[in-house]
Amino acid sequence: MVLLKPEYFTAEGIPATVYNLGLIRQYGGQFYNWEPRTLWLEIQDDYGVEPSEEVKDKIQALAAINVINTVYTDCSVFRSVALALNDNDPQFDISGGLDVHEVAWAVDEIRRNANYSHPWGEEVKSFIIICLKFEEFLKVPEAISDFIDLDYKPEVSPDILKIPEVQKQAAIRHKRVAAYILYKREELNKYLASSG
C-alpha cells in the first residue's frame, strides 16, 4: 500500500491511483462514502495540509468511480471524472468532448481503481466513439479497446484507408496516445515506488 506524503496533497500531476491506495491505507475503503468536507478535515488533521482543488477533484472522481454507476452510463459524468483524472477542472457545468489520450488515461485509471467491474453503458460508449471520430482515429487505441468493447468504424471509404499518408497520420495519432499512457504509467510507478 502507498504511504501518502503531505506534499502529495498540494502537488500537481500525481495520478489518482496514488491517492486511492494511500487513502485506503489510511481510512479504509469507506472514505468513498464520506462527505467531502469530512474527508478534507481528516486529511488536514492527519497530514497537516488541505488538499488542493486538483487533488480534491481526483479524490471525488475516485469516489464517483466506486459509489455511483453513472460514471459508466452518463457521458457528462464520465467526462467530468475523465477531466479530473487527467489533471483538469472537471467542468461539471460545461459540455464538450475529450481528447482521445484523455479518454484512454481515464479508462486506465477507472479500470485500476474500481472496486468491481461495471458494464459500460451505450451513452458513454457513443461519447467515446464521437471523440475518436472527431480526432479521425481509424481504429480504437488499445488503451481503450482492452477495457471497453466499442463498435467503432471510421467514417471514411476503404479506398482512403489505403493511402499511405492517411495510414501514416493514423499511426502518429496512435503513437501519441500510447506515449501519453506510457508517460502517465511511468509517473504512477515513480510515485508508487517512492511511497513505500
H/E order of the elements? HHHHHHHHHH
Spans of at least 5 consecutive residues with low confidence:
none
Counting DSSP H or I runs of 4 or more residues, the number of helices is 10
- Radius of gyration, in Å, reads 18 Å
- Percent strand equals under 5%
> How far apart are the termini?
7 Å
Categorize the overall geometry: elongated
Strand element count: 0
* SS class: mainly alpha
Number of domains: 1
Largest sheet data:
none
What's the rounded overall pLDDT mean? 92
Measured as a percent range, the helix fraction is 55-70%
What features would you describe in this structure?
With 196 residues, the protein is mainly α. It has one domain. It contains 10 helices and no strands. The longest helix is centred in the C-terminal third of the chain and has 31 residues. The protein is elongated and about 65 Å long. It starts with 15 loop residues before the first helix and ends with a helix. The mean pLDDT is 92.
Topology overview:
Elements: H1 16-27, H2 36-47, H3 53-67, H4 70-73, H5 75-85, H6 100-113, H7 122-134, H8 142-145, H9 158-161, H10 164-194
Helix pairs in contact: 1-3, 3-5, 5-6, 6-10
Question: How would you summarize this macromolecular structure in one to three sentences?
Answer:
With 196 residues, this protein is an all-alpha fold. It is built from 10 helices and no strands.
Question: Top keywords for this entry?
Answer:
196 residues; mainly alpha; 61% helix; 0% strand; elongated
